[in-house]
From TrEMBL:
GN (gene name): larA
Gene source species: Anaeroselena agilis
Pfam families assigned: Lar_N (PF09861), LarA_C (PF21113)
InterPro entries associated with the record: LarA-like, LarA-like_C, LarA-like_N, LarA_C, Ni_dep_LarA
Lactate racemase C-terminal domain residues: 283-421
PANTHER family: LAR_N DOMAIN-CONTAINING PROTEIN, LARA-LIKE N-TERMINAL DOMAIN-CONTAINING PROTEIN
Domain LarA-like N-terminal: 9-207
Protein name, entry field: Nickel-dependent lactate racemase
Amino acid sequence: MEKIFEFGFGDQKLKLALPEEQIIQVIEGRAYPPVTDVAAAVKEALANPIGTPPLKEIVKPGEKVGIVVSDITRAWVKFNFFLPVLLDELNACGIPDSDMFIVIGVGAHRAHTVDEDVLVCGQDVCHRVPVYQHDCHNQDELAYVGKTSRGVETYINKRLAEADRMIITGGIVYHFMAGFGGGRKSIMPAISGFRTIQGNHLFCMNKEVGKGLNPLCASGSLEPNDMHHDMCDMAELAKPDFLLNAVFTPEGKFAKFFAGHWYKAWEAGTKLVEEIYGVPIKAQADLVIASSGGFPKDINLYQGSKTIDNAYMACKPGGAIICIMECRDIYEPREFSDWFKHKNMLDFEMAIRNHFTIPGFVAYKCADIAQKQPLIVVTKPENVDFVNGTGMIAVTSLDEAYRIAKEKLGKKDFTITVMPGAANTVPVLQG
């Protein structure tokens, strides 16, 4: 008996009939009630912190307080909704606006424009307190705070290092390298020096040159994860005084706020991320059919890489993957697509080791998955040549992708896992 499934593709839906008896799982995120009163939820989190005294017992009148805010690439965190509440709470603690400032933690990204500061922080916040851009390349604006247990020299933003108190803010999600985003990522890479960022991110590569990726650096993986532990060392050196992080519903609304100790409060937030987005699976499938969920999650291959990575986690070694991604802006961003000029995987790996960038790493990981098993991408006709050039198999219809997958598997009794919203759902293999 067949069952018809619908998959998001840009603004459209693609349909495919699949044999119901061969489907072992449909992986979908869990519903979670959104926060209805953001200000009240933030105040409650600040008043009941995890692992620290309340904010009013940490900050003192006369102290300078620096607040780390993520850059425009994390605009989904919606800082403009909760930063005003945080500033008001600091006012209530005896800290006037004149004794606060914000640093945009751009990491190795470009600085914001003034309009982007307003978009991320909100007009009111930008009028109330100074907003500065972190510059990872300017040694004069960096302060040395020590060396991690893995030997990475740690430089952070000098303005924040010299402040009396540092508060870090952000959003917690699954992260394909660090296990989870948020928390210590507001230190590394957000306000770290470029050499420090490079030193940390290289832990995502295998210790042995020529062996590619470090398999321990993956979504949901914290123990062991060399990158994560090195980031934690850096946070210990930077000594942030307080954290305010948010977790989101599958619809992108606030699910809950977490406040307190930079690790303990963040760790509590990761448990909720696992509850909402981590989907337990008993077995990997021969064939995984995954959609990013449509536009904008499939706007380009870089965004679609989350779908590829999550689908790979649900697939058996030697199996096949179908990813449904329109990719209307296939070449964007160029700092991602240009990496596919390396056709030899060893050359690709060495280029990453010599000049690590996140887009480069993501490109390498996609190419690595395509080397290991058939990775069939349903996309727009004009994208076919580029996608084929990455080592993936480009097709323009879901039926064609299914036919090729069956040919590659070479058997009729293959198992299937379906992932309609694969950009956000992470398969967690039990046992």
